[in-house]
Amino acid sequence: MKKIRKSSYMNSVDIGDGRSLLFNGFSLCMDLVPKSYSEKLSKNDLSMLSPEEEDHLLKRGHLTLLSPKQELSAFRRQVRLILEKSAELDKNKTNGDLSFILTYKCNLSCSYCYQKSLSSKSRNAVMSGEFVDNFFSNHFSQLFPKVPKNFSITLFGGEPLLPANREAISRILAFTKEHPCRVLVATNTTTLPSMADLIGPENGKIQSVQVTLDGDRFMHDKNRIPVSGQPTFDATIAAIRQLIELKARVIVRVHIHQGNLESASKLVEYLEAEKLLGHPQVGLYFSPINTFTSEQNTAEGLDIFCKTFQKVAKKTNLPPSNMLYMNSFLEMQTKSILPKVRHCGMGSGKFYVVDPFGDLYHCYEEAGHKDRRIGSFSQGKLRFFRLRETYANRHLLNIPECIRCSFALFCGGGCPSEARRQKGSIFTSYCHQNKEFIAQTLKAFLVRKEVKNI
Fold it and tell me: If we measure between CA atoms, which residue out of 269, 448, 399, 339 comes closest to residue 81?
């Protein structure tokens, strides 16, 4: 007779009211149980379960009759099926993302900027209007034979809204007026007043604007400074208000710093007092700077992070996570979108970054480093490099530690660029703060959606 045991892919998060949320990284099922149950289940103690409860947890996948080896094999088969389905969808390219790095030049000098190592030649390059026209006339169809149904263009830098970039932006927006798609810009907002005429809710304009706040006023003004050294926090808040007036969608990216989680908490309090948190045009997500790892925080610091995360989720009806949104989880459960077997668009054939030199990348953080190019445009032709195929093979089946991880289908293996930088290979995991973010996101999901209690 086969022995019932706890699934190797079962996870739990403390809800804080005597209950825990079980979420299974294989079946993707979620269930509320008494906290005492989850504590015993984590130790593979099933003594408290009635036959009915045991049967329910078996059906939901939290318990299993498979041995660890058999369950791992079954999980591998599931991942392989998802990869095959993903490849089929990629052929049709029903969605796609294209990013233009208009320049690597920036008018801020943030201490943690990953572009600091770029050469002066790269930093001084500016994408011309002629380059944009040539790209759309001769190269766009080589990446996307037709404009995908769900297509978006991101304007990136450096600082994309520098005045020198106006001509290139205008040519890009002319394309989007004829081929309606979402247009987003990631900007520090310092030059926003002079570029405001390019922003608005209609086709042919920039509809969404990502703005970065580096914590509260003190932290932000310490880290995000122009050459002049002048503070930028108040100007950034003023820009957010201007964007609301322009009827743009505003996405506030909040940096999370190791050992200073109070800064993010104070910022959230400030945004709430200013009636910006929860505003219908304003979204917010946390983006940990690469020194942040939830496992290395103090218990007090982690508590601050969790409370702040849940406060934002409750106020905005969306968790401040850029890796797993609530609607994504709902769609994963109904199988209308696939779980994550890759962390990001790298290697998928649906996400490309183009820079002023005509070089093609799969990642913002690798752009400008020519040894990380996946391709290049020249003389009207697109030439792909071997690295593109390498990136295409970066998925869960090829990351040994990830295929055994109970968070794998929520995470996709973590950032490949950081894995290479930190561990020397993209075929290793990069967990960073992912597990805590996933747990808190699913906890926030529970606030909105009733989960059946066993």
Answer: 339
Among the residues of 246-298, which ranges form H helices? 261-273
Q: How far apart are CA 394 and CA 135, in angstroms?
A: 28
- pLDDT for 454 equals 47
**Looking at the whole model, is its pTM more than 0.70?**
yes
Number of domains in the chain: 1
Contact 41, 10 (CB under 8 A): yes
Q: What is the CATH classification number for the domain harbouring 240? A: 3.20.20.70
Q: Which single residue is written with the structure tokens 């978006």?
A: 152
Cα–Cα distance for residue pair 92/146, rounded to 1 Å: 10
Q: Domain containing 173: what range?
A: 95-333
Three-state DSSP at 92 gives helix
Do you find a cis peptide bond into 158, omega within 30 degrees of 0? yes
The torsion defined by the Cα of 267, 269, 273 and 276, in degrees rounded to 10, comes to 50
Q: How many CB atoms lie within 10 A of CB 101?
A: 25
pLDDT per position as a tens digit, 371-393: 999 999 987 789 999 999 999 99
In a domain, 69, yes or no: no
CA atoms within 13 A on the CB side of 73: 5
Could you count the other beta carbons within 10 Å of the beta carbon of residue 242?
17
Q: What are 272's two structure tokens?
A: 């709430």
User: Could you tell me if 432 and 290 are in contact, meaning their C-beta atoms sit under 8 angstroms apart?
Assistant: yes
Write the DSSP assignment of 13-36 as a string of letters. EE-SSSEEEEEETTT--EEEEEHH
Identify whether 62 is part of a domain.
Answer: no
Task: Return the biggest CA–CA distance within the chain.
Answer: 74
DSSP letter for each residue of 182-213: EEEEEE--TTHHHHGGGBSSSTTSB-EEEEEE
The answer to the question of residue 64 being in a domain is no
Task: Work out the pLDDT band at 300, boundaries 50, 70, 90.
Answer: confident
